[in-house]
Amino acid sequence: MGPSTELMFDRMELMQDSCVLDIAAGAGGQTLNAAKRVGPSGHVLATDLSPGILKQAKANADLAGICHVETQVF
Questions:
Q1: What is the CATH number of the domain that holds 29?
Q2: Non-local CB neighbours of 57 within 8 Å, separated by 6+ positions
Q3: Domain that holds residue 38
Q4: pTM of the model
Q5: How far is CA 61 from CA 13, 16, 45, 46, in A?
């Protein structure tokens, strides 16, 4: 899904300093890609129904050194 995600971000004109709401984020694959695009001055909120999967998404962000990702069960 990588190329499709990048195309979607291109069409959204997702850029530095943007704020992103990732609904049904799962383990955060798209979340991390979005966070890289918006940079440290941007913000990404990843939501999902599962607290466990969001814990994994946050761990993945932390492991990648990305600190501008927040998770919330929704």
A1: 3.40.50.150
A2: 25, 26, 27, 28, 31, 46, 48, 69, 71
A3: 2-73
A4: 0.90
A5: 22, 17, 12, 11
pLDDT tens for residues 38-72?
A: 999 999 999 999 999 999 999 999 999 999 999 99
Domain count, the chain: 1
Vertex 31: Cα angle to 29 and 34 (nearest 5): 115
Cα 2 to the center of its chain, rounded Å: 13
> Distance (Å, rounded) from C-alpha 2 to C-alpha 72?
24
